[in-house]
Amino acid sequence: MQAQASGLQVSVHGHPNADTLLLWHPAAATDPDGVAALASRIATRSSVRVVVPVWTLDSAGRDLLRSVRYARESSVHPPDNLSVVGYDAAGIAALSLALNQRRLGIGLTRVTCVDGGPDTLDPISGQPLPAPSPAPVETAVDVVETDGDWARATVAAWQGADWAATLVPRSQFTWRVNPSQ
Question: Entry's InterPro entries (predicted)?
Answer without folding.
Answer: AB_hydrolase_fold
